[in-house]
Amino acid sequence: MTSAEAAQHYFTKAARIMDVGERIETLLSTPLREVGVQVSIELDNGEIRTFRGYRVQHDNARGPMKGGLRYHLDVDHSEMLGLASLMTWKTAVVNLPFGGSKGGIAVDPSTLSIKELERLTRKYVDQVQDVIGPTRDVPGPDINTNPQVMAWVMDQYSRYHGHSPAVVTGKPLELYGCRGRDTATARGLLSICREILKDVGMPMAGTRFAVQGFGNVGSHSARLFAADGGLIVAVSDVHGGVKNPSGLDVPALFDHVKRTGTVKGFSGGDACSNEEVLTSDCDVLVPAAVGGVLTAPIARAVRARIVLEGANGPSTPEADDVFEQRGVLVVPDILANAGGVTVSYFEWVQNLQHMTWEEERVSTELERVMREAYEKVGQISRSRNLPLRTSAYVLAIGRVGKATVLRGI
Amino acid sequence: MPIPTPLVKKLVQIPIFGGLTVPEAAEFFEVAVEVSEPKGKVLFREGDESDALWVVLEGSVTVSRKGVELAQVGRHAVLGEMTLVDERETRSATATALEDVKLLKVPSKRVQKLLKADNVAVLKVVANLAQVMSKRLAAINEKLVSTLGDKSKKREELADFNRILTRWEF
Prior knowledge:
The structure holds two protein chains of two kinds.
Chain A: H1 3-18, H2 22-29, E1 33-42, E2 48-59, E3 65-71, H3 77-93, E4 99-105, H4 114-128, E5 137-141, H5 147-161, H6 184-200, E6 208-212, H7 216-227, E7 231-237, E8 240-243, H8 250-260, E9 270-272, H9 274-278, E10 284-287, H10 296-301, E11 306-308, H11 317-326, E12 329-331, H12 333-336, H13 339-353, H14 359-384, H15 388-407
Parallel strand pairs in A: 3-4, 3-5, 6-7, 6-10, 10-11, 11-12
Antiparallel strand pairs in A: 1-2, 2-4, 7-8, 8-9
Helix pairs in contact in A: 1-3, 1-15, 3-15, 4-5, 6-7, 6-13, 6-14, 13-14, 14-15
Chain B: H1 5-11, H2 22-28, E1 33-37, E2 42-44, E3 52-58, E4 61-65, E5 68-73, E6 78-79, E7 94-97, E8 101-107, H3 108-116, H4 120-166
Antiparallel strand pairs in B: 1-8, 2-7, 3-6, 3-8, 4-5, 4-7
Protein backbone atom coordinates (compact mmCIF):
# COMPACT_ATOMS: atom_id res chain seq x y z
CA MET A 1 0.00 0.00 0.00
CA THR A 2 1.46 3.37 -1.00
CA SER A 3 1.19 6.29 1.40
CA ALA A 4 -1.44 7.72 -0.92
CA GLU A 5 -3.51 4.53 -0.64
CA ALA A 6 -3.01 4.54 3.11
CA ALA A 7 -4.32 8.11 3.24
CA GLN A 8 -7.44 7.06 1.33
CA HIS A 9 -7.83 4.12 3.74
CA TYR A 10 -7.72 6.42 6.78
CA PHE A 11 -10.06 8.92 5.12
CA THR A 12 -12.61 6.19 4.44
CA LYS A 13 -12.28 4.84 7.98
CA ALA A 14 -13.01 8.26 9.47
CA ALA A 15 -15.81 9.00 6.99
CA ARG A 16 -17.51 5.70 7.91
CA ILE A 17 -17.24 6.48 11.62
CA MET A 18 -18.84 9.85 10.93
CA ASP A 19 -21.39 8.05 8.73
CA VAL A 20 -21.34 10.77 6.08
CA GLY A 21 -22.75 8.47 3.41
CA GLU A 22 -21.35 7.16 0.17
CA ARG A 23 -22.17 10.20 -1.95
CA ILE A 24 -20.55 12.67 0.45
CA GLU A 25 -17.50 10.37 0.59
CA THR A 26 -17.31 10.53 -3.20
CA LEU A 27 -17.79 14.30 -3.18
CA LEU A 28 -14.95 14.76 -0.70
CA SER A 29 -12.51 12.36 -2.29
CA THR A 30 -12.97 13.28 -5.96
CA PRO A 31 -10.34 15.78 -7.12
CA LEU A 32 -11.38 19.18 -8.39
CA ARG A 33 -9.02 19.24 -11.36
CA GLU A 34 -6.33 16.93 -12.71
CA VAL A 35 -3.84 18.30 -15.18
CA GLY A 36 -1.31 16.25 -17.09
CA VAL A 37 1.21 18.07 -19.24
CA GLN A 38 4.00 17.43 -21.67
CA VAL A 39 7.30 18.85 -20.45
CA SER A 40 9.70 18.81 -23.38
CA ILE A 41 13.15 20.35 -23.16
CA GLU A 42 16.33 20.41 -25.16
CA LEU A 43 19.18 18.80 -23.25
CA ASP A 44 22.62 20.44 -23.20
CA ASN A 45 23.73 18.07 -25.95
CA GLY A 46 20.88 19.10 -28.22
CA GLU A 47 18.78 16.00 -27.62
CA ILE A 48 15.06 16.51 -27.13
CA ARG A 49 13.60 14.86 -24.06
CA THR A 50 9.93 14.73 -23.15
CA PHE A 51 8.78 14.23 -19.57
CA ARG A 52 5.33 13.88 -18.07
CA GLY A 53 4.22 16.55 -15.64
CA TYR A 54 1.19 16.62 -13.37
CA ARG A 55 -0.75 18.98 -11.19
CA VAL A 56 -3.66 17.47 -9.28
CA GLN A 57 -5.91 19.88 -7.40
CA HIS A 58 -7.99 18.03 -4.88
CA ASP A 59 -10.14 20.50 -2.97
CA ASN A 60 -10.39 24.28 -2.62
CA ALA A 61 -13.36 24.64 -0.27
CA ARG A 62 -11.13 26.13 2.44
CA GLY A 63 -8.93 28.26 0.21
CA PRO A 64 -6.27 28.24 -2.51
CA MET A 65 -4.81 24.78 -2.90
CA LYS A 66 -1.40 23.99 -1.48
CA GLY A 67 0.93 21.15 -2.27
CA GLY A 68 4.48 20.25 -3.15
CA LEU A 69 6.21 19.95 -6.50
CA ARG A 70 8.01 16.59 -6.73
CA TYR A 71 10.68 15.51 -9.22
CA HIS A 72 10.90 11.73 -9.08
CA LEU A 73 10.58 8.74 -11.39
CA ASP A 74 7.75 7.38 -9.21
CA VAL A 75 5.62 10.44 -9.99
CA ASP A 76 2.43 9.39 -11.71
CA HIS A 77 -1.16 10.42 -11.82
CA SER A 78 -2.53 8.22 -9.03
CA GLU A 79 0.35 9.02 -6.69
CA MET A 80 -0.26 12.75 -7.25
CA LEU A 81 -3.96 12.30 -6.58
CA GLY A 82 -3.39 10.52 -3.27
CA LEU A 83 -0.87 13.09 -2.12
CA ALA A 84 -3.12 15.98 -3.17
CA SER A 85 -5.96 14.69 -0.98
CA LEU A 86 -3.49 14.15 1.87
CA MET A 87 -2.68 17.88 1.61
CA THR A 88 -6.38 18.76 1.84
CA TRP A 89 -6.66 16.89 5.13
CA LYS A 90 -3.34 18.17 6.46
CA THR A 91 -4.07 21.85 5.86
CA ALA A 92 -7.50 21.32 7.41
CA VAL A 93 -6.14 19.62 10.55
CA VAL A 94 -3.93 22.64 11.30
CA ASN A 95 -6.72 24.97 10.20
CA LEU A 96 -4.82 26.79 7.44
CA PRO A 97 -7.01 28.61 4.89
CA PHE A 98 -5.81 26.26 2.16
CA GLY A 99 -7.05 23.31 0.16
CA GLY A 100 -4.87 20.51 -1.13
CA SER A 101 -2.96 19.77 -4.32
CA LYS A 102 0.18 18.06 -5.55
CA GLY A 103 2.30 18.18 -8.65
CA GLY A 104 5.44 16.84 -10.14
CA ILE A 105 7.43 15.60 -13.06
CA ALA A 106 8.37 11.98 -13.69
CA VAL A 107 12.11 12.54 -13.92
CA ASP A 108 15.30 11.57 -12.13
CA PRO A 109 16.77 15.05 -11.65
CA SER A 110 20.22 13.64 -10.82
CA THR A 111 20.57 12.86 -14.54
CA LEU A 112 20.06 16.52 -15.49
CA SER A 113 22.47 19.44 -15.41
CA ILE A 114 21.48 22.52 -13.44
CA LYS A 115 20.66 24.32 -16.72
CA GLU A 116 18.49 21.42 -17.84
CA LEU A 117 16.73 21.39 -14.49
CA GLU A 118 16.02 25.10 -14.89
CA ARG A 119 14.62 24.62 -18.41
CA LEU A 120 12.52 21.69 -17.16
CA THR A 121 11.10 23.76 -14.31
CA ARG A 122 10.34 26.76 -16.50
CA LYS A 123 8.70 24.59 -19.14
CA TYR A 124 6.54 22.92 -16.51
CA VAL A 125 5.45 26.35 -15.25
CA ASP A 126 4.63 27.36 -18.86
CA GLN A 127 2.27 24.39 -18.99
CA VAL A 128 0.51 24.88 -15.63
CA GLN A 129 0.72 28.66 -15.15
CA ASP A 130 -2.95 29.11 -15.97
CA VAL A 131 -4.12 26.77 -13.19
CA ILE A 132 -1.73 27.80 -10.40
CA GLY A 133 -1.43 31.21 -8.75
CA PRO A 134 -1.48 32.94 -5.35
CA THR A 135 -5.28 32.63 -5.13
CA ARG A 136 -5.58 29.33 -6.98
CA ASP A 137 -2.89 26.82 -6.19
CA VAL A 138 0.44 27.44 -4.50
CA PRO A 139 3.24 24.88 -5.08
CA GLY A 140 6.10 24.35 -2.64
CA PRO A 141 9.22 22.20 -2.35
CA ASP A 142 8.96 18.42 -2.15
CA ILE A 143 11.17 15.44 -2.97
CA ASN A 144 14.13 16.60 -5.13
CA THR A 145 13.00 20.20 -5.41
CA ASN A 146 14.61 23.00 -3.44
CA PRO A 147 14.53 26.79 -2.93
CA GLN A 148 16.31 27.36 -6.26
CA VAL A 149 13.60 25.43 -8.11
CA MET A 150 10.98 27.49 -6.28
CA ALA A 151 12.77 30.69 -7.36
CA TRP A 152 12.52 29.56 -11.00
CA VAL A 153 8.83 28.81 -10.53
CA MET A 154 8.26 32.29 -9.14
CA ASP A 155 10.21 33.95 -11.92
CA GLN A 156 8.57 32.01 -14.75
CA TYR A 157 5.07 32.53 -13.37
CA SER A 158 5.79 36.25 -12.91
CA ARG A 159 6.67 36.55 -16.60
CA TYR A 160 3.06 35.72 -17.39
CA HIS A 161 1.23 37.36 -14.50
CA GLY A 162 3.50 40.11 -13.20
CA HIS A 163 5.52 40.07 -10.00
CA SER A 164 4.01 37.21 -7.95
CA PRO A 165 6.14 35.97 -5.05
CA ALA A 166 3.06 34.39 -3.42
CA VAL A 167 2.63 31.88 -6.26
CA VAL A 168 5.09 29.49 -4.62
CA THR A 169 6.57 28.88 -1.17
CA GLY A 170 9.88 27.53 0.02
CA LYS A 171 11.72 30.23 -1.88
CA PRO A 172 15.25 31.28 -0.92
CA LEU A 173 15.43 33.69 2.00
CA GLU A 174 16.91 36.32 -0.35
CA LEU A 175 13.88 36.02 -2.63
CA TYR A 176 10.79 36.35 -0.45
CA GLY A 177 11.49 33.18 1.52
CA CYS A 178 10.45 32.76 5.15
CA ARG A 179 12.79 32.63 8.11
CA GLY A 180 12.69 29.36 10.00
CA ARG A 181 11.48 27.31 7.07
CA ASP A 182 14.31 24.78 7.31
CA THR A 183 13.39 23.92 10.87
CA ALA A 184 9.62 24.31 10.46
CA THR A 185 8.64 20.63 10.43
CA ALA A 186 10.98 19.83 13.33
CA ARG A 187 9.64 22.79 15.33
CA GLY A 188 6.12 21.58 14.69
CA LEU A 189 7.09 18.12 15.95
CA LEU A 190 8.60 19.68 19.06
CA SER A 191 5.42 21.66 19.80
CA ILE A 192 3.27 18.56 19.45
CA CYS A 193 5.73 16.52 21.51
CA ARG A 194 5.63 19.01 24.37
CA GLU A 195 1.83 18.84 24.42
CA ILE A 196 1.58 15.07 24.32
CA LEU A 197 4.22 14.63 27.03
CA LYS A 198 2.24 17.05 29.17
CA ASP A 199 -0.87 14.92 28.54
CA VAL A 200 0.79 11.68 29.57
CA GLY A 201 2.54 13.37 32.51
CA MET A 202 6.15 13.03 31.36
CA PRO A 203 8.66 15.87 31.64
CA MET A 204 10.70 16.65 28.51
CA ALA A 205 13.88 16.50 30.56
CA GLY A 206 15.14 12.95 30.48
CA THR A 207 12.63 11.68 27.93
CA ARG A 208 14.43 9.27 25.57
CA PHE A 209 14.05 9.79 21.81
CA ALA A 210 14.95 7.53 18.89
CA VAL A 211 15.07 9.34 15.55
CA GLN A 212 15.03 7.39 12.30
CA GLY A 213 16.23 9.51 9.39
CA PHE A 214 18.70 12.35 9.65
CA GLY A 215 17.66 14.64 6.85
CA ASN A 216 15.96 18.00 7.28
CA VAL A 217 13.26 16.72 9.66
CA GLY A 218 15.27 14.14 11.61
CA SER A 219 18.39 16.19 12.21
CA HIS A 220 16.61 19.36 13.31
CA SER A 221 14.24 17.33 15.48
CA ALA A 222 17.14 15.63 17.26
CA ARG A 223 18.77 19.01 17.83
CA LEU A 224 15.57 20.66 19.11
CA PHE A 225 14.56 17.74 21.37
CA ALA A 226 18.05 17.66 22.87
CA ALA A 227 18.06 21.43 23.38
CA ASP A 228 14.74 21.04 25.21
CA GLY A 229 16.20 18.52 27.65
CA GLY A 230 15.45 15.28 25.80
CA LEU A 231 17.94 12.43 25.44
CA ILE A 232 18.62 11.26 21.90
CA VAL A 233 19.35 7.58 22.44
CA ALA A 234 19.43 6.40 18.82
CA VAL A 235 19.59 7.90 15.33
CA SER A 236 20.02 6.49 11.86
CA ASP A 237 20.16 7.46 8.20
CA VAL A 238 20.31 5.44 4.98
CA HIS A 239 23.91 4.38 5.72
CA GLY A 240 23.36 3.09 9.26
CA GLY A 241 22.75 4.12 12.84
CA VAL A 242 24.29 4.87 16.17
CA LYS A 243 22.91 4.47 19.69
CA ASN A 244 23.80 5.45 23.21
CA PRO A 245 21.34 4.66 26.04
CA SER A 246 22.59 7.57 28.13
CA GLY A 247 22.11 10.03 25.26
CA LEU A 248 24.17 11.02 22.23
CA ASP A 249 26.13 14.26 22.19
CA VAL A 250 24.03 15.93 19.50
CA PRO A 251 26.31 18.92 18.68
CA ALA A 252 29.23 16.49 18.28
CA LEU A 253 27.03 14.25 16.11
CA PHE A 254 26.22 17.26 13.89
CA ASP A 255 29.96 17.91 13.48
CA HIS A 256 30.45 14.27 12.50
CA VAL A 257 27.65 14.43 9.93
CA LYS A 258 29.08 17.66 8.54
CA ARG A 259 32.45 15.96 8.08
CA THR A 260 31.35 12.54 6.82
CA GLY A 261 27.84 13.09 5.46
CA THR A 262 26.36 10.35 7.65
CA VAL A 263 25.65 9.51 11.30
CA LYS A 264 27.32 6.13 10.74
CA GLY A 265 30.66 5.76 12.47
CA PHE A 266 30.00 8.43 15.10
CA SER A 267 32.29 7.65 17.98
CA GLY A 268 29.92 8.83 20.71
CA GLY A 269 27.85 5.62 20.62
CA ASP A 270 27.56 2.05 19.36
CA ALA A 271 26.81 1.25 15.75
CA CYS A 272 23.33 -0.14 15.07
CA SER A 273 21.02 -0.87 12.15
CA ASN A 274 18.10 1.18 10.96
CA GLU A 275 15.65 -1.38 12.31
CA GLU A 276 17.36 -1.39 15.72
CA VAL A 277 16.64 2.33 15.95
CA LEU A 278 12.94 1.67 15.38
CA THR A 279 12.80 -0.97 18.10
CA SER A 280 15.28 0.61 20.51
CA ASP A 281 14.49 1.17 24.15
CA CYS A 282 13.10 4.72 24.14
CA ASP A 283 10.03 6.72 25.15
CA VAL A 284 9.37 8.51 21.88
CA LEU A 285 10.06 7.12 18.42
CA VAL A 286 10.35 9.66 15.62
CA PRO A 287 10.26 8.04 12.17
CA ALA A 288 11.51 10.87 10.00
CA ALA A 289 12.67 9.15 6.83
CA VAL A 290 10.57 7.41 4.20
CA GLY A 291 7.07 5.92 4.32
CA GLY A 292 6.18 2.34 5.21
CA VAL A 293 9.09 1.63 7.59
CA LEU A 294 6.84 0.64 10.48
CA THR A 295 5.27 -2.63 9.37
CA ALA A 296 3.15 -4.82 11.64
CA PRO A 297 6.03 -7.06 12.82
CA ILE A 298 8.21 -4.05 13.61
CA ALA A 299 5.26 -2.33 15.29
CA ARG A 300 4.97 -5.32 17.63
CA ALA A 301 8.63 -4.88 18.58
CA VAL A 302 8.52 -1.11 19.07
CA ARG A 303 9.29 -0.25 22.67
CA ALA A 304 8.41 3.44 22.57
CA ARG A 305 5.25 4.64 24.26
CA ILE A 306 4.74 7.41 21.72
CA VAL A 307 5.30 7.41 17.96
CA LEU A 308 5.68 10.87 16.45
CA GLU A 309 5.32 10.61 12.67
CA GLY A 310 7.80 13.10 11.24
CA ALA A 311 7.72 11.40 7.83
CA ASN A 312 4.68 10.96 5.62
CA GLY A 313 3.08 7.55 6.09
CA PRO A 314 5.82 5.83 8.13
CA SER A 315 3.30 3.37 9.64
CA THR A 316 1.38 0.95 7.47
CA PRO A 317 -2.33 0.62 8.30
CA GLU A 318 -1.58 -2.86 9.74
CA ALA A 319 1.11 -1.38 11.98
CA ASP A 320 -1.35 1.32 12.96
CA ASP A 321 -3.77 -1.38 14.15
CA VAL A 322 -0.97 -3.04 16.15
CA PHE A 323 -0.13 0.26 17.83
CA GLU A 324 -3.77 0.80 18.68
CA GLN A 325 -4.10 -2.68 20.21
CA ARG A 326 -0.89 -2.22 22.19
CA GLY A 327 -1.89 1.22 23.42
CA VAL A 328 1.05 2.97 21.75
CA LEU A 329 0.14 6.60 21.15
CA VAL A 330 0.65 7.51 17.50
CA VAL A 331 0.70 11.17 16.54
CA PRO A 332 -0.24 10.90 12.87
CA ASP A 333 1.71 12.49 10.03
CA ILE A 334 -1.10 14.84 8.99
CA LEU A 335 -0.84 16.45 12.42
CA ALA A 336 2.75 15.81 13.49
CA ASN A 337 4.59 17.02 10.39
CA ALA A 338 2.20 19.83 9.44
CA GLY A 339 4.73 22.42 10.67
CA GLY A 340 6.24 22.53 7.18
CA VAL A 341 3.08 23.53 5.38
CA THR A 342 2.21 25.89 8.23
CA VAL A 343 5.39 27.89 7.70
CA SER A 344 4.71 27.77 3.95
CA TYR A 345 1.43 29.43 4.80
CA PHE A 346 3.31 32.10 6.77
CA GLU A 347 5.54 32.68 3.75
CA TRP A 348 2.47 33.12 1.52
CA VAL A 349 0.93 35.53 4.07
CA GLN A 350 4.11 37.62 4.21
CA ASN A 351 4.38 37.70 0.41
CA LEU A 352 0.77 38.86 0.05
CA GLN A 353 1.35 41.58 2.65
CA HIS A 354 4.82 42.52 1.35
CA MET A 355 6.17 41.98 4.85
CA THR A 356 8.94 40.02 6.52
CA TRP A 357 8.52 38.32 9.87
CA GLU A 358 11.32 37.79 12.36
CA GLU A 359 12.12 34.15 13.09
CA GLU A 360 10.73 34.49 16.58
CA ARG A 361 7.32 35.45 15.23
CA VAL A 362 7.41 32.46 12.91
CA SER A 363 8.19 30.16 15.87
CA THR A 364 5.52 31.67 18.10
CA GLU A 365 2.81 31.52 15.46
CA LEU A 366 3.84 28.00 14.47
CA GLU A 367 3.67 26.82 18.06
CA ARG A 368 0.19 28.32 18.43
CA VAL A 369 -1.09 26.65 15.25
CA MET A 370 0.34 23.25 16.21
CA ARG A 371 -0.89 23.48 19.81
CA GLU A 372 -4.41 24.38 18.72
CA ALA A 373 -4.48 21.53 16.21
CA TYR A 374 -3.24 19.04 18.78
CA GLU A 375 -5.80 20.28 21.30
CA LYS A 376 -8.69 19.84 18.83
CA VAL A 377 -7.56 16.41 17.71
CA GLY A 378 -7.09 15.40 21.35
CA GLN A 379 -10.59 16.60 22.23
CA ILE A 380 -12.16 14.42 19.52
CA SER A 381 -9.95 11.50 20.53
CA ARG A 382 -11.01 11.71 24.19
CA SER A 383 -14.70 12.43 23.67
CA ARG A 384 -15.15 9.70 21.03
CA ASN A 385 -12.53 7.28 22.29
CA LEU A 386 -10.79 7.27 18.90
CA PRO A 387 -7.07 7.05 18.10
CA LEU A 388 -5.36 10.33 17.27
CA ARG A 389 -5.08 9.48 13.57
CA THR A 390 -8.76 8.80 13.09
CA SER A 391 -9.55 11.88 15.16
CA ALA A 392 -7.31 14.01 12.93
CA TYR A 393 -9.10 12.75 9.81
CA VAL A 394 -12.47 13.33 11.47
CA LEU A 395 -11.42 16.91 12.24
CA ALA A 396 -10.19 17.41 8.67
CA ILE A 397 -13.32 15.97 7.09
CA GLY A 398 -15.41 18.10 9.44
CA ARG A 399 -13.65 21.32 8.52
CA VAL A 400 -13.59 20.66 4.78
CA GLY A 401 -17.17 19.42 4.98
CA LYS A 402 -18.37 22.51 6.84
CA ALA A 403 -16.75 24.80 4.28
CA THR A 404 -18.29 22.77 1.47
CA VAL A 405 -21.76 22.96 3.01
CA LEU A 406 -21.50 26.69 3.70
CA ARG A 407 -20.29 27.50 0.21
CA GLY A 408 -22.73 25.12 -1.47
CA ILE A 409 -21.85 22.65 -4.16
CA MET B 1 -70.67 -9.26 -38.79
CA PRO B 2 -72.69 -9.36 -35.57
CA ILE B 3 -70.87 -10.14 -32.37
CA PRO B 4 -72.16 -13.36 -30.78
CA THR B 5 -74.18 -12.87 -27.63
CA PRO B 6 -71.88 -14.91 -25.32
CA LEU B 7 -69.00 -12.58 -26.26
CA VAL B 8 -71.18 -9.52 -25.66
CA LYS B 9 -71.99 -10.87 -22.20
CA LYS B 10 -68.29 -11.17 -21.50
CA LEU B 11 -67.51 -7.71 -22.86
CA VAL B 12 -69.92 -6.00 -20.48
CA GLN B 13 -67.83 -7.38 -17.61
CA ILE B 14 -64.89 -5.22 -18.75
CA PRO B 15 -64.86 -2.07 -16.56
CA ILE B 16 -65.03 0.39 -19.47
CA PHE B 17 -68.18 -1.37 -20.78
CA GLY B 18 -69.63 -1.90 -17.31
CA GLY B 19 -73.28 -0.92 -16.84
CA LEU B 20 -74.17 -1.50 -20.47
CA THR B 21 -77.18 -3.74 -21.01
CA VAL B 22 -76.60 -6.58 -23.41
CA PRO B 23 -78.70 -4.82 -26.13
CA GLU B 24 -76.74 -1.57 -25.59
CA ALA B 25 -73.47 -3.43 -25.87
CA ALA B 26 -74.70 -5.24 -28.96
CA GLU B 27 -75.48 -1.85 -30.50
CA PHE B 28 -72.04 -0.48 -29.52
CA PHE B 29 -70.25 -3.48 -31.02
CA GLU B 30 -72.57 -3.68 -34.03
CA VAL B 31 -69.89 -2.82 -36.57
CA ALA B 32 -66.97 -4.27 -34.61
CA VAL B 33 -64.76 -6.80 -36.36
CA GLU B 34 -62.70 -9.60 -34.90
CA VAL B 35 -59.08 -9.51 -36.03
CA SER B 36 -56.28 -12.08 -35.56
CA GLU B 37 -52.69 -10.92 -35.71
CA PRO B 38 -49.43 -12.85 -35.42
CA LYS B 39 -46.81 -12.35 -32.71
CA GLY B 40 -44.69 -9.24 -33.34
CA LYS B 41 -47.30 -7.47 -35.44
CA VAL B 42 -47.54 -3.74 -34.79
CA LEU B 43 -51.22 -3.01 -34.29
CA PHE B 44 -50.72 0.74 -34.47
CA ARG B 45 -47.85 3.17 -34.14
CA GLU B 46 -47.36 6.32 -32.15
CA GLY B 47 -48.43 9.18 -34.47
CA ASP B 48 -50.69 6.98 -36.61
CA GLU B 49 -54.20 8.16 -37.25
CA SER B 50 -56.53 6.96 -34.47
CA ASP B 51 -59.02 4.93 -36.37
CA ALA B 52 -60.29 2.43 -33.86
CA LEU B 53 -60.78 1.25 -30.31
CA TRP B 54 -59.35 -2.22 -29.64
CA VAL B 55 -60.34 -4.86 -27.17
CA VAL B 56 -57.91 -7.72 -26.59
CA LEU B 57 -59.82 -11.02 -26.72
CA GLU B 58 -56.87 -13.41 -26.62
CA GLY B 59 -53.10 -13.03 -26.19
CA SER B 60 -51.08 -10.09 -24.89
CA VAL B 61 -49.91 -6.77 -26.25
CA THR B 62 -47.12 -4.38 -25.27
CA VAL B 63 -47.75 -0.64 -25.28
CA SER B 64 -44.77 1.70 -25.63
CA ARG B 65 -44.05 5.34 -26.15
CA LYS B 66 -40.77 6.73 -27.51
CA GLY B 67 -39.30 3.26 -27.15
CA VAL B 68 -40.18 3.01 -23.47
CA GLU B 69 -42.60 0.26 -22.55
CA LEU B 70 -45.58 1.69 -20.71
CA ALA B 71 -47.48 -1.52 -20.09
CA GLN B 72 -48.11 -5.10 -21.10
CA VAL B 73 -51.79 -5.89 -21.32
CA GLY B 74 -53.74 -9.09 -21.85
CA ARG B 75 -57.23 -10.47 -22.28
CA HIS B 76 -60.05 -7.91 -22.09
CA ALA B 77 -57.74 -4.93 -22.06
CA VAL B 78 -58.95 -1.93 -24.05
CA LEU B 79 -56.49 -0.06 -26.30
CA GLY B 80 -56.94 3.28 -27.98
CA GLU B 81 -59.73 4.31 -25.66
CA MET B 82 -58.47 7.89 -25.82
CA THR B 83 -59.95 7.99 -29.28
CA LEU B 84 -63.27 8.42 -27.49
CA VAL B 85 -62.38 11.77 -25.95
CA ASP B 86 -59.20 13.04 -27.52
CA GLU B 87 -59.55 15.52 -30.33
CA ARG B 88 -56.03 14.80 -31.49
CA GLU B 89 -56.63 12.12 -33.97
CA THR B 90 -53.26 10.39 -33.69
CA ARG B 91 -52.03 7.51 -31.53
CA SER B 92 -50.15 8.50 -28.40
CA ALA B 93 -48.42 5.10 -28.17
CA THR B 94 -47.41 2.04 -30.16
CA ALA B 95 -49.06 -1.35 -29.60
CA THR B 96 -47.32 -4.58 -30.61
CA ALA B 97 -48.55 -8.16 -30.29
CA LEU B 98 -46.40 -10.11 -27.84
CA GLU B 99 -47.90 -13.39 -29.06
CA ASP B 100 -50.57 -14.40 -31.55
CA VAL B 101 -53.52 -12.24 -30.60
CA LYS B 102 -57.22 -12.01 -31.27
CA LEU B 103 -58.74 -8.55 -31.00
CA LEU B 104 -62.00 -6.76 -31.44
CA LYS B 105 -61.74 -3.56 -33.44
CA VAL B 106 -64.40 -0.85 -33.08
CA PRO B 107 -63.99 1.92 -35.73
CA SER B 108 -63.62 5.41 -34.25
CA LYS B 109 -66.02 6.88 -36.76
CA ARG B 110 -68.74 4.61 -35.49
CA VAL B 111 -68.09 5.65 -31.91
CA GLN B 112 -67.99 9.37 -32.79
CA LYS B 113 -71.21 9.08 -34.73
CA LEU B 114 -73.01 7.42 -31.80
CA LEU B 115 -71.60 10.02 -29.44
CA LYS B 116 -73.01 12.88 -31.52
CA ALA B 117 -76.36 11.14 -31.47
CA ASP B 118 -76.34 11.06 -27.64
CA ASN B 119 -76.32 7.29 -27.78
CA VAL B 120 -76.78 5.96 -24.23
CA ALA B 121 -74.33 3.08 -24.69
CA VAL B 122 -71.49 5.38 -25.78
CA LEU B 123 -72.30 7.91 -23.04
CA LYS B 124 -72.07 5.09 -20.49
CA VAL B 125 -68.73 4.03 -21.99
CA VAL B 126 -67.46 7.62 -21.85
CA ALA B 127 -68.57 7.86 -18.21
CA ASN B 128 -66.71 4.63 -17.48
CA LEU B 129 -63.69 5.96 -19.34
CA ALA B 130 -63.76 9.08 -17.15
CA GLN B 131 -63.50 6.80 -14.10
CA VAL B 132 -60.64 4.82 -15.60
CA MET B 133 -58.84 8.06 -16.51
CA SER B 134 -59.40 9.45 -13.05
CA LYS B 135 -57.80 6.36 -11.51
CA ARG B 136 -54.88 6.64 -13.93
CA LEU B 137 -54.45 10.31 -13.09
CA ALA B 138 -54.36 9.46 -9.40
CA ALA B 139 -51.68 6.85 -10.09
CA ILE B 140 -49.64 9.35 -12.13
CA ASN B 141 -49.98 11.94 -9.38
CA GLU B 142 -48.70 9.37 -6.93
CA LYS B 143 -45.72 8.68 -9.15
CA LEU B 144 -45.06 12.40 -9.58
CA VAL B 145 -45.11 12.96 -5.84
CA SER B 146 -42.64 10.14 -5.28
CA THR B 147 -40.35 11.47 -8.04
CA LEU B 148 -40.44 15.00 -6.61
CA GLY B 149 -40.02 13.47 -3.17
CA ASP B 150 -36.78 11.84 -4.34
CA LYS B 151 -35.56 15.20 -5.54
CA SER B 152 -36.26 16.93 -2.24
CA LYS B 153 -34.51 14.05 -0.48
CA LYS B 154 -31.50 14.66 -2.74
CA ARG B 155 -31.54 18.32 -1.80
CA GLU B 156 -31.40 17.28 1.82
CA GLU B 157 -28.25 15.25 1.37
CA LEU B 158 -26.06 18.28 1.96
CA ALA B 159 -28.25 19.33 4.89
CA ASP B 160 -27.98 15.78 6.30
CA PHE B 161 -24.22 16.06 6.06
CA ASN B 162 -24.39 19.40 7.84
CA ARG B 163 -26.44 17.81 10.61
CA ILE B 164 -23.83 15.05 10.95
CA LEU B 165 -21.15 17.73 11.26
CA THR B 166 -23.03 19.51 14.04
CA ARG B 167 -22.90 16.31 16.08
CA TRP B 168 -19.10 16.69 16.23
CA GLU B 169 -17.16 19.54 17.76
CA PHE B 170 -14.68 20.98 15.32
